[in-house]
Amino acid sequence: MSITSEQREEIRQTRATSSQTLRPTVAALEEILYEPFQVLDHGFVRVIDYMGDDSAVVQAARVSYGRGTKKVSEDRGLIMYLMRHWHTTPFEMADIKFHVKLPIFVARQWIRHRTASVNEYSARYSILDKEFYIPEQQHLAAQSSSNRQGRGEVLEGDEARRVLEILREDAERTYSNYAWMLNEPSDEQAPDEDRSGLARELARMNLTLNTYTQWYWKANLHNLMGFLRLRADPHAQYEIRVYAEAMLEIMSRWVPLSHEAFVEHRMGSASLSRTAITAVRRMIAGEKLTAATSGLSPREWRELCQTMGIEQV
Amino acid sequence: MSITSEQREEIRQTRATSSQTLRPTVAALEEILYEPFQVLDHGFVRVIDYMGDDSAVVQAARVSYGRGTKKVSEDRGLIMYLMRHWHTTPFEMADIKFHVKLPIFVARQWIRHRTASVNEYSARYSILDKEFYIPEQQHLAAQSSSNRQGRGEVLEGDEARRVLEILREDAERTYSNYAWMLNEPSDEQAPDEDRSGLARELARMNLTLNTYTQWYWKANLHNLMGFLRLRADPHAQYEIRVYAEAMLEIMSRWVPLSHEAFVEHRMGSASLSRTAITAVRRMIAGEKLTAATSGLSPREWRELCQTMGIEQV
Amino acid sequence: MSITSEQREEIRQTRATSSQTLRPTVAALEEILYEPFQVLDHGFVRVIDYMGDDSAVVQAARVSYGRGTKKVSEDRGLIMYLMRHWHTTPFEMADIKFHVKLPIFVARQWIRHRTASVNEYSARYSILDKEFYIPEQQHLAAQSSSNRQGRGEVLEGDEARRVLEILREDAERTYSNYAWMLNEPSDEQAPDEDRSGLARELARMNLTLNTYTQWYWKANLHNLMGFLRLRADPHAQYEIRVYAEAMLEIMSRWVPLSHEAFVEHRMGSASLSRTAITAVRRMIAGEKLTAATSGLSPREWRELCQTMGIEQV
Amino acid sequence: MSITSEQREEIRQTRATSSQTLRPTVAALEEILYEPFQVLDHGFVRVIDYMGDDSAVVQAARVSYGRGTKKVSEDRGLIMYLMRHWHTTPFEMADIKFHVKLPIFVARQWIRHRTASVNEYSARYSILDKEFYIPEQQHLAAQSSSNRQGRGEVLEGDEARRVLEILREDAERTYSNYAWMLNEPSDEQAPDEDRSGLARELARMNLTLNTYTQWYWKANLHNLMGFLRLRADPHAQYEIRVYAEAMLEIMSRWVPLSHEAFVEHRMGSASLSRTAITAVRRMIAGEKLTAATSGLSPREWRELCQTMGIEQV
Known about the structure:
- The structure is a homotetramer of 313-residue chains.
- Chain A folds into 3 domains: 5-128 and 210-267, Gyrase A, domain 2, CATH 3.30.1360; 137-206; 274-308, no CATH class.
- Helices cover 44% and strands 15% of the residues of chain A.
- Chain A contains 12 helices and 9 strands.
């Protein structure tokens, strides 16, 4: 992971000083506050700050005084109810802030989630580090033949070797040309006094999309779940899914009841269309349906069979 | 203020238990956490939770590790710079959550600020208390004759007396009819067993707009300032301005550097149009301008004279 | 309906002049453009402008040139697919603008949908008309005994009569006191020269929540559907549902394919939790479940039985 | 410009068919509807659709019937007033949709404007064309020595030549390796039957940030102005500013009154802090200020001198 020893020391120091607060505090999250969770080869996710916990959700739903009811069992039932019925506003009442290091092509997907606050490292202003994502061989997948935005089998042998070589060489070369064009002093080279050096905001265009960037990303629990629902899904691209999985793990420490409800009613749920409901009613009544008799499109029928664990006919 | 003794006790208890946290903590805000600040006759504002402080703004601007730089003087300069140049995203990195009790007509203005999270007491679900806003006589202003959405002189004598009487009587009567239609058990009346009682979601329509409601309202610092800039302004309606003023006071405890920059570059600032800049240049060069020679519309000229403290000609 | 004859004439004139445009145009929507659809006793909804149609959704999904493919059958399949898989961004690419007249308590629910543009008639600036919502007797429902935010049986006899009397009398009296406090010239009264008249921004607080207001409300198709999904739902309060139903009807004229997909995959759909999927799998396999053996909470089991049309045990 | 002859033909056909509409129509915008405006070497901006015009702003401000007042002079004054006083909601009532082709590093800046709707060409799903931005030599600027995110002098001679060579060679090589890894049939190569081909979602990471992408981007007039205010500003990076300038030109065709007000009160305006107002008052009164006596920070004093066209002392 690309945490320098200096940064490690800074994290250690930050974790060494605690304060008293009257705010709701989550012990399981405090345990890992500031600590980086490694993701991909050089990336990480770490929690920088948070506000509220499961009781903030309950409190908002009750618009009551104090820290809500005492019985966890009632809170759990209420949170399950809110999640099941898409009463989403109480989940906006808790916030979390992450520091994330991630490849640019992942950042481009991530940023499409608009209802979050973001401050990214600026390559207009500063110089990007020489760090880029190179997949492990087991993640070098072929294009899926059935799904235009999916992955198929893992590449093997010469093809895999050559792909890794290309990714590494091209990233190395474009980065080294980036550094040359900048003509700035670094550990590896002294600037050439005869050259002006290209502006940073221009030189960066020579970098490849697997170069790492970093940002602070803050979202409320509702919008975090919107992100996780799409990005922790098996259909999400592997390289963003691993970030979402780390964040889902963090969410279970932070708001365990909301996490449970989220897994039950979002991650593991299925939506049935009007016609699919009719099909399921007939199946429950004992009828054997086929693609042809289901009333559904072939694709929706296939998906329904998968959800219901029945053999497609 | 409409805090019951039971609520006071609950606040006292909540304030009695503190925890350890590794998060940034603001002592001046902890001092008043949960405590209600009275606003209008029955309203209040109180802070329920917060995340981050001035250093969160600095940290986001620097996208650096740890809690930002050590020197407060540098942080102050950076925050001033960000505010002056409308670099707004770092101010999104700190959040605050309020519990507010306010008249419905104030809530209707307030809710137009869309980038906040809100959970309001539901009169569909619960019964509203018998509390309504009656202005103090000194705030019973006449319609302004020059500004269609402004106030003029204070009403006096019989007219003032009669207005207060009307406001009180109409609110009392409509509330008492609301209670009658609900036909629910209360301290003041037993339900009439022969009646069904009107649904709460319907009965509420009989209440007047000065009835108090309450909500949790959470915003990040950037959006809080957007709210304060409009609502703590002298042109804002008095009844919402007093809430904004209480929140501005709270903001100065929470993020003193951002508060200072906000007062300097937003609250006390003025925007000059292209043509107004030309007019000011000429005045600095010693020219005496009049409405006619300024190049500005009469109204903009008047506003410029006020800003620059010069006599209108 | 509260359209004055002057307004009718204005609508007639606006509809009398058409222009040539190269933009996509929807004949079925042009037919009713500007025309008010009556809702409740004095309210209405009318379309003021629109941008795009079903092909805008298709075009965005394909990010292709021109007006998309020629075959409606392919467009229909794509729109169904997008809706089923919650690919929501293409539905943001079409917009519609409404002019709505509605009671204030309905406006208060409506405005909670934040991702829309709104300009409301200002009672700070202008004087509200003497129009308030009085329910028809068949909609005077009692409080539901099972659902705290629902309606039960319709009130009858004396109770109903008295409720209607109260609603009418209180609205009349508070409005007439509002007018008196304003002391402005009107058709019904000359101002009292000895009085200053209360500022409009204050006088309005005496009005009841069933007073009508009006606004322009613009949303893109995605956010319109977010609104309709909640507000055209049988659990929505009747008084906002009738607006949503009128808008759903308008939507079917505007974007018939998206409307069909919306009814199929949103309005008529059901979401099954992880546990509910297991329960349905067992039922499809022939098992007879009961509340006790289903693994679901009593409430979720009841809802699942309703969805699947099976008798609760 | 990278419009193929096939696309040209499609645009020609689309422009050949017009319809009748009752909606407000802007002749000057219809003239250029669908037509690409070239930006940079391979980019473009073109208007795909629009809704409303200056009268939509006026109408929303008046919440009145029909198409607003007849006199353009009154509309102009109202729009100037709204702009000057930051009454922004009426400007949300008109929308415009663009089709834009732009380098990825420009897209990364652009997307930070969150309140817009976007559909981007997906390199997960499709193959990107071989097109990348190579600056003209006159835009090959050195890093500014005074401003960390600015440009200095233009590079010359060998350094400029070498930079252009690098940018071209690296983009060519990474693209050609991208194509090789994909192993898909193209005009230039037949796929190698012995290889599987890397998934598109992975292969794209080898592309450099100057590769062109494209998207549909829709915003309302208020948010469009938010974008233009930052991106048509002289401090914006040249490569995004040229897009903003083309859009500003388009805006002047679409909403000429709003455009005039925007130039007067936003683009050409200046904001004076509380302290700067005091300084200007003193200068108008005839006092000669210096950095030391102005009360301002050196940087703010320098900016004020520039705005007021006075010599810095």
